[in-house]
Amino acid sequence: RKGSTGYNPNEVQPPRKQLHVDPEDYSQEGNRDLENDEDFYDPSNPSEQGGSMDMNLDDQTNETNPFTFTPPFTQHTTGEGVTTRSASPSLFSDIHDSDTEDPPTDNKEPITTPAKQETRAQKPLPPPRNSTINGHTVPASQLTPPPHKGFPQAYGVTAKGLTDAITTTTKKVWNTIKGPKAYVTVAYASPTKNYSLEHVNDIKNTIRKFTKDNQNMVLSPSELTSRTNNTTPQPFLLSGLPKVETEALCDFRIFSTPTLTLAIFPVRIDPDDFLMTLTGFLLEPTKQNESFIKTVVTKALEHSPTIIDWFNRNQAHLHPKLALYPPIHIPKTIAASTQVHALTVNENGGAQIVWGIYIFPPTLDNKLAAEFKTLAKEIQYASIHGYGNAKRTDFQCGLCRGRDHPTAVCPMKTVHGFFNKDPNPSHPNNTIEPNPTVDPKTEDDDDTLFDIPENRNQSRGHHTLRTAQAPRGRGGPNRGRKAGRGLPK
């Protein structure tokens, strides 16, 4: 047998050539001021090395799981007429040293699988009957078990987004807490100033069911700034548990029980694939139209002067996987990773089609990732089928806390056996198992928090009420013809 003709992981490979698609060819498939915002995480701070914990790590427009992209296969034909197949090198897939070729055979006809075996492989697995967490085996009647592929991803969840509305006093108190920590949010819980002791005890008792060494467990409440809405996160800070048990809770993430549903997050969350939500395209939510918008967005990002300048200024802070690519090709490589997913939501009194945009994160630095998102949102994505503009304020799910969808269409509701406690009767509970991806582990939490002033600019952030109006009297900023019109979308 001749040697492998597959990919050699020890050789630096150039990025694959991208297929140029003209967005006019419809049949092809395919703000926030950051410089003066002192809420951003400083990468030079020792929290990078685990010295401290940062509640306000990144922009609120940003669950932690990178998108999985499946590379195509490359076929090779030897001089003997034997066709082999090897995986092409990809930025978005793990590269293994093992030989991925199909072994050559004397019979040149393709190897087929019996129809009976194909049918058996395509049969869906039955839903899990129980969950295992910190040594506890819990039946599905008391805790919704994760599907075989994991819970649906909650894209855009950030540490800053979870804590952006809490007061400076809360941050100072949380600074004094040492040891492993995690954020805990309650599904469908509206912000409140007066906690119910019974409600807090329910949260504690729920967590105790899935931990063992919990004698020193503490659940610290938070106080929010004055302007919030019904989906503004009001997290608790969980502490006092061993590190291994805290990490297990964060990895499990969603605890849906007959009484309440909790979402638990680590105090450090890396940027994920979610970039923004676009509106303005007059297209139906089909795969073909998703491909069309992908072409429009890819071209705009690749040729945007501000995006190119961002890459040039931040070469030293790009994602480690980009080190194998020549700098001149990196903007095109990142732009080509664009994925588009259509979503139908109820806005402005009727159904509206929006388009979620996802890319491979160009950096793991939360401040730089937030800057990149802001630049991408400032671009208008013009096409023959409309002019795409990014939503200024991302959605805020009151269940999983994701930022790429509203509460009504949260994918968690499609998980088999999910205990839906949505107080809104118009939000259905569908028990159809989805196809999510599995969350990777995040970095360990730290011992301290930063004293970062709360955000008092009420014109920014997801906790700003759209219905709030400024005074209309003489000298008021909204007097005259513009009074009462509200904020633009």
List keywords for this structure.
15% strand, five-stranded antiparallel sheet, 489 residues, alpha+beta, 14 strands
Folded structure, characterized:
Residues 479-489 have a biased composition (Basic residues). A hairpin with a 5-residue loop joins β1 (73-77) and β2. It contains 9 helices and 14 strands. With 489 residues, it is of the alpha+beta class. It has helices spanning 115-122, 159-163, 168-175, 197-208, 243-252, 287-303, 305-313, 330-336, 366-377, and strands at 73-77, 83-87, 130-133, 136-139, 181-186, 218-220, 236-239, 254-256, 261-266, 274-281, 339-347, 350-358, 381-383, 386-390. A 5-stranded antiparallel β-sheet has the order 6-7-5-9-8, covered by helices on one side. The chain has a 5-stranded antiparallel β-sheet with strand order 11-12-10-14-13. Among the domains are: 55-66 and 129-266, no CATH class; 274-414, no CATH class. The radius of gyration is 24 Å and the shape is globular.
